[in-house]
Amino acid sequence: MKKWLFDILKDNTLVDNQIYHIDNGLFTNNRFEQPIQLYRRESGQWNYSYNNENAIWYFLNQTNREIQKLFETNKQKALVLFHNRDYEHNSNDDFIEVNGIDCMNFSLRTGNIIGYLKKGEYAIKISSRFGDNFLKYIISDADGFLEIENYGGSEKEQGYEWLLIYLWKTKVRKAYRLGLPKKYQTKRQELTRLRGNLNPVHYFTTGKDIGIYDCEYREHSYNNEATRLIAATFKKIGKHEFLNDCTLMKNAFYTAIEGDKLRSAELYRTKHFTNPFYKDYNEVIDLSKLILRDQLSDFGEKSDTSAFFFDVSMLFEYFVRKLLKRAGYLLNSKFENRAEIPTGSKTYKRKLEPDILINHKDKGFVFDVKYKSFDFVYGVSREDLFQLHTYVGQYGNEIEIKACGFIYPISAKGWQEKAKDLELPCIKSKIKVLGFEIDFYVLFIVVPENQNENYHNDFKKNNDSFINAINEITN
Predict the structure, then answer these.
(1) What is the DSSP letter of 179?
(2) Which residues in 272-304 are b (16+ Cβ under 10 Å) and which e?
(3) Which of the two residues, 140 and 432, has the higher pLDDT score?
(4) What are the domain boundaries of the chain?
(5) What is the pTM of this model?
(6) What's the rounded Cα separation, in Å, for the pair 59 and 375?
(7) 19-23 and 26-28: which strand pairing?
(8) Which candidate, 206, 260, 257, 197, places its Cα nearest to that of 227?
């Protein structure tokens, strides 16, 4: 097989958590059935975007440096994050890491961040190694909407903007179950009955008949800045195929705003709801602002430069926590009652934040969620093991730790090749901490192949198998 590197960089060849090697124009990766031989510009051939090796190499290195700098200085704005307390950006990865001498001899490493960056005619896209159906499933499942049968396609779109639209849709639908959001609005109106505060000089200034009162009062109104923001977002992306089944909800927002419009600057100043009843709308507000600010390359004015990044490890961890909560397990919040250990500093202590801490029958179970690939030869990485031992040792001071381990996703194909003989999706062994033996597990969530016709049902069965393994461990 032969391809231009120009095309490989943006045609879904590159996926997360991989190392790609290019040696004298031979492009290799352990996921490939066979290496890809790169085309090269022949002597005397004109320079075009697709065959200009110097320009491609410059683009890769410039992209590498600029995104590293962006993540170091402003990671919160570089990634799609959430205010939900269960979400956390838990990846120290860069978008890509490039090392080499030219575009025919280099290595490219990807981590937990997927996304798309475009500069002029050049672009690079890192996709999920489990495919787009995996992303859609864990987003919709985590928020209670399983729309697996008719996704709509993302093939027409170059980047991952569809992911933000899909996420926005699930958040709006979740919030809309509460009804349209209402806020108190101050109104002034001439009424025949007294309401609110009366303007006492109204009669003398207008000369109108007695019995008409100039009143200023407050009442709940659906026409507020939040509904106007969401309606404006519907207007911007309403023709996207993901929103074909949202006509009634969209019209409800259009009706609520009574034809009113706000300038963009006023929409961007929309505040979160302080009323806890409407807290689910706060995430919708944040995502709506992202969409309206034209931080998407597929909507509005397309510029020569656009970028969109997403931390899949964060989303996968949230998905796992939701699975466990729905199974009835009580999980410690990652942001409350955190253990702290001295660092040698007089003022600073380091907080310990295991991804999963289950309290069950007065026993503790500590697990870390890893979106990376599990190595069946060497097992869990040294750094991750050290981290887990620290969690067990510290939290074991307060509660008896019965078991610990890690949770990984694995493809159905990988599962068949590596571990199909296991009765449950887990590997069990023992570790010893301060003289006590503790059960140690590596648990797997098996992800169906992206093109599987029964994707939804198979993934649900695999999730049930994972929960069955957890049940055996905790009981």
Answers:
(1) -
(2) ebeeeebebbbbbbbbbbbbbeebbbbbeeeee
(3) 432
(4) 2-128, 183-221, 327-474
(5) 0.76
(6) 32
(7) antiparallel
(8) 257
* Residue 427: per-residue pLDDT: 93
| Of 369, 377, 390, 352, residue with least CA distance to 442 | 369
Report CA torsion sign: 419, 423, 425, 428: negative
The 3-state DSSP class for residue 88 equals coil
CA distance 372 to 356: 17
CA angle 7, 11, 17 (to 5 degrees): 115
Q: Give the pLDDT of residue 365.
A: 94
> Tens digits of per-residue pLDDT, 64-106?
888 877 777 655 444 444 434 444 444 566 788 999 999 999 9
pLDDT at 4: 96
Whole-angstrom distance, CA of residue 176 vs CA of residue 170: 10
CA 340 to chain centre: 28
What is the Cα Rg of the chain in Å?
A: 27
Question: How many Å separate Cα 351 from the centre of its chain?
Answer: 24
10 Å CB burial of residue 117 (0-12, 13-18, 19+) is buried
CB atoms within 10 A of CB 78: 20
Closest-CA residue to 62 (of 130, 119, 140): 119
